[in-house]
Amino acid sequence: MSSQTMLSEPGLESVHGEEAAALEEDVRLRNDIRLLGRILGDTVRDQEGADVFDLVERIRQTSIRFHRGDDKAARRELELILDSMSISQTLLIVRAFSYFSHLANIAEDQNNIRRMRASSKAGEAPRPETLARTLLHARAAGFSAASLREFFASALVSPVLTAHPTEVRRKSTIDREMEIAAVLDRRERVQLTPEELVASDEQLRRAVLTLWQTNLLRWTRLTVLDEVANGLSFYDYTFLNEVPRLHSRLEDRLNEGGGTQGELASFLKMGSWIGGDRDGNPYVTADVMRGTLKMQSSRVLRFYLDELHVLGSELSLAAHLADISKDLRALAERSPDRSPHRSGEPYRLAVSGIFARLTATAARLEVETTRAAVGEAAAYANAAEFKADLDILDRSLTMNNSRVIARGRLRHLRRAVDCFGFHLASLDIRQNSAVHERTIAELIDAAMPGKSYLAMSEEARIALLTGELRNARPLTSAFVKYSEETMGELAVFRAAAEVHAKYGAQAIPQCIISMCKGVSDLLEVAVLLKEVGLVGPSGRSAINIVPLFETIEDLQNSARIMDRILSMHDYRKLVDSRCSVQEVMLGYSDSNKDGGFVTSGWELYKAEIGLVDVFDRHHVRLRLFHGRGGSVGRGGGPSYDAIIAQPGGAVNGQIRITEQGEIIFSKYANAEVGLDNLEILAAATLEASLLHPRQSAPRAEYLEAMERLSAHAFKAYRGLVYETEGFADYFWASTVITEIATLNIGSRPASRKKTRAIEDLRAIPWVFSWAQCRLMLPGWYGFGSAVEAWVKENPDTGMAFLKELYREWPFFRMLLSNMDMVLAKSSIAIASRYAELVPDVVLREKIFERIRREWKSSIDALLEIMGQTRLLESNPLLERSIRHRFPYVDPLNHVQVELLKEHRAQNIDEQVLRGIQITINGISAGLRNSG
């Protein structure tokens, strides 16, 4: 048996006609898959023997038969094979299929890069979802370059990286995968000689063998600072270079065609929660937050110093050959560089002086540097001073006919300083409103004996807190011994004030209130910020106070809450001190777990409509922060479509979006792909804001139909998840939720409380578990019931009206498109094997048959409304991607089920749990956006 079959196109012999033609378009993808499969096959056979290799192939082929039609004979054969394997054989099989998934992903990513480059050829129309295409539309709509520059001057696009635990891979394996991707990329772009091709093959074999002999899983749990370090890797991979490049490209496009030339304001700023998100994570402390900012500052300052070092070698211009400005001459004269070799090179002298000042700045910020400066110099007070010196270099080069030199490394460095400052990324601090409430209660009860804050009504709390905001007296006392929790919260706020003084206000610009349920939740945070000087009694605030509305009920109340607080004089003064911008965060994950996919999406949409109206009336600029996860069940899906589908006025030139878990790697590990994803965010923000900023609301009958569909879907979802007796037992038995908690993939606990209640479970492990058993339930459940009930209520219009909704309404189209993707990744046949893990037969059959019926009716309704004969018919690229991938994911599911049986039968062999953990890794890689 040839090792080439180990990772090849599944069932290619049965694909005919149009599908075969479509596959032919991806011939280079198949070549990459064959190449990596052959190398992996050779590695498995060389390291583990031909018997193991043959067993892998047998399982793969049987799994394909089972997947195609729930083949009963294939199911029995598969169970016999798996039952006959020893635990050591099982672990080898699991590792092989896990690496199949990872290698197939690498090949697919390279193919996507090829497609992206092919569609960006000179002379061709710009491809969709790019700034070039959006600018064409904007120019056609009458927007001048000057008006577009004015738009970006007040715009903000901010991807916010979070450490939410859905990335199950180690950095060690990620690094080897990136090496393999780089080799494939070079083979694509460079015509290699025969000798170079042999060396390239050997490099691939070396990387694959290293992967095979590297632990797939972490043996120890990550600390918060480990998560910070992992997040910072993406600045090296992508952000430090590609964020400036995106601005430069856009600036050049706006300056094309003559007319007034101008510099583009920096509008794309990175954000982070890693090291500042305390909600449910006791390991994020004041010291951890300080350590996080120090690590961020170290990364960006070292980048600047490295760039300055190279820039100095590049700017070798001699004074007698190139004129310089007076400012440049003065900058060179202030340099401590006294080397005779550079006495006639003013630009090098100036760069040496800048390097010396930045080195002194690094010392002030406690950042270790690798190169010594040429002499002593004063530290920069802030990043603006550093940027001002770089601007002197730029102006001198430009005014003396050397603009092309200024447009090189110097241009990118100037832009980087403008975007990243000395803090690299803006760190949000976040905590649950209940913690703020307890902290304030303790402070007030100690300062005002007999008050009993927790017993007060909402109105009484508002009155008390408003008075405290005006009061210059501190609420805390050095003579009171507070609880550990309160001391921890106060320490974090004091650390935030220190960070502002040390790195600047942009280092921590937001304080986010999780589970915000009322006006007092915002006022409590304002009072706590006043205690450390970030809010002043005169009505000045140095930080944005951001409510996060997460549950269905909170989303429904969000407009009312914001209307009330913006009407309050004392709070409004704080907003006005922040340039009359109020940020509101919307939670996709918890609202989905609370009400299901359909209702969550609809309530988020309605909340945005209500908030836009409230903010318009108050003449306050609304900035929405979308807390989207990677999976559809947590608000994931294509970013461009999601932004364009926002209701009119909801984007308004400013948007922040979380980037979570494994999605960070898939979007930003490759610089070219990373730049494309950043451009998608910018293009969608521009289009949603300028090209349909106040698009007319959907017709009333559309809104009425969606309201009824949501009500029916909510009833079906809640009826199953929260109102069916024994459902929690079914969930815990039929998924890997218990075993997920054993993975060392994050620092935060999986549950808010130590119970088995669905209400107390975090949204991430909830969605992740359903993805592992291939039901993907949070991404579709309730839709089939909703459509059936709506059609019964509306027999005259029926399906024809829902088809119209799909054609005419971007929101409804996005909703169905995301369900199409998630249902295509599900497998009811595989899910049935997980259902067998439920020991109560009656409970198992009752709930699984209910899920099966809803799954079938949801697919039927989806296909009819979308006008498709099969899932993903309108997205052939993704359809082929899934077809390539599933033969390597499905066997992992089957093995996982067998290992779960062993583990839950109290098999104490630690290799059983290790095997389960590796299958979780492999399935997650195969599904890609599973959490």
Tell me the overall shape.
Answer: globular
Task: Please estimate the helix content.
Answer: 55-70%
The amount of beta strand, in percent, is 5-15%
User: C-alpha Rg, in Å?
Assistant: 29 Å
Distance between the termini: 37 Å
Major β-sheet annotation: 9 strands, parallel
Going by helix content, strand content and strand pairing, the class is: mainly alpha
The low-pLDDT segments are 1-5, 7-18, 631-636
Per DSSP, the total helix count is 38
Spatial arrangement of strands, main beta sheet? 3-2-1-9-8-7-6-5-4
Tally of strands: 9
Mean pLDDT: 90
What do these coordinates show?
The protein is mainly alpha-helical and 931 residues long. It is built from 38 helices and nine strands. A nine-stranded parallel beta sheet has the order 3-2-1-9-8-7-6-5-4. Strand 5 (510-514), helix 20 (519-531) and strand 6 form a beta-alpha-beta unit. Helix 3 crosses helix 37, helix 11 runs parallel beside helix 19 (484-503) and helix 24 (597-618) crosses helix 28.
